[in-house]
Structures are given as structure tokens and as C-alpha cells.
Amino acid sequence: MNTKVNKDGAIENYKLIINTSSYVYALLTEGAKKKGYSSLREAFLSNFTKEMDLGEEVRDKITYDEGDKVSIIIEVRDFIPKDNSKIGVWKEGNHIVFEDLTWASENEQQPTDEFTKAVLSSFALHYYLEMPGKIVDSNANVIRQSGI
User: Given 64, 79, 128, 141, which residue has the most CB atoms within 10 angstroms?
Assistant: First the structure.
């Protein structure tokens, strides 16, 4: 996950890269078709725009690519999240605040079956966020200041 916020509080770039095995890719594709989607691309874009509440005006800004090495890349450029989106950017005084709840679990329930546990244990989320100006507070594991 790579996100860049500009000084006006708009998201300049929001890029999700999913690298997976051909086995998991096949499972995802099969699951999408069972849910009535014509392709994994359609399922991802439909769910992505719903989850983020991006609206029709932003759908044209989304790019989607399935790479050669079982990579799925979804990218949105130049948008301002709506108030009810899982992503928020707002100003507090002289500061810009960013919050992304896309990956937060709503009910904190843990999977009970062994297959789901095994699949989920293979996932890792690396989140890179670039903010304008000096970072004054964060819950990140690593913070790098540059150009200040």
C-alpha cells in the first residue's frame, strides 16, 4: 500500500499492490465468479469503490492491472475522500491528519477454520504513507523525515 497526500489534503496517489501465489489467485478468481462477478478485476473494482465510497467521478481515475507474476495493482490518483469513506484526510489547525481504516477489522473476530487461518497467515500488509511537511504524530513503526 503506497499513499501520498499533498499539502491541500487531497490524496495524490493511492496504490494497492497485491503479490500472491497462483494458487491463491485461482481461489480469489473462483470466489469472485461464485459471487456473480465476471472476473476478479470486476470484483476488486466493485468492492474497492464501495469500501472507499469513491463515487462515479473517481471510478475513471482507477487503474487496474494484473501483472505477469501474479500481481494485482489498483491505483487511484488525485481524489479527496468523501466524509463516509474508510479513508479520511482533514485539517486540524496547521496540521493535516490522515486515517485509513480500509484494513481495520470491524468486529475483531478471528477465523475459526484451519484453511482460513492458513490463508490469512500468509498475508502481510506493508503501508507506506507520504505526507507533506513535518510529521508530528504517528502510529507507524518507522518514520522517515525527508526534505525538511
Answer: 79
Tell me the whole-structure pTM to 2 decimals: 0.74
CB count within 10 Å of CB 16 equals 17
String of b and e for 76-88 (b: at least 16 CB within 10 Å)? beebebeeebebe
Let me know: does 52 contact 71? Beta carbons within 8 Å.
no
Write out pLDDT tens, residues 91-122.
Answer: 888 899 999 888 776 665 666 666 666 666 66
Q: Phi/psi of residue 115, each to 5°? A: -65, -50
49: nearest Cα among 60, 37, 34: 60
Please state, as a whole number, how many other Cβ atoms lie within 10 Å of the Cβ of residue 32.
Answer: 19
Domain boundaries, the chain: 2-130
